[in-house]
Model the fold of this input.
Amino acid sequence: MRLGYTPPETGETRLSEHSRYDAIIAGAGHNGLTAGCYLAKAGLKVLIVEKNDWIGGAAVSRSLHEGWTYSNCSYVCSLLRREIVRDLELPRFGLQVIPYEGGASFGADGGYFAYLSD
Done:
């Protein structure tokens, strides 16, 4: 996978007019990345483009406030098919599934409720 150049003044990604791809995938969320990896493993030249300045979609943990990290949709890890983990050798690249041990709910007034499982 090759990352494009992003000029800081425009935010646009520039590709050479001579760039040729067998597949272009819009969206570097977990589904776009999975599709791109399978296509690349099959020998195709793949370009994945993403509108955000991060990749991973629902599979990403992000900082909501300083000291608070959350995952958009970490519950969907239970839907991750074992054959995808195996085929793409995801543990070799850092995949770790951490069992759910609690969480927090945030209120509009800035308060929160934290809970842990025993």
Remarks:
- The mean pLDDT is 81.
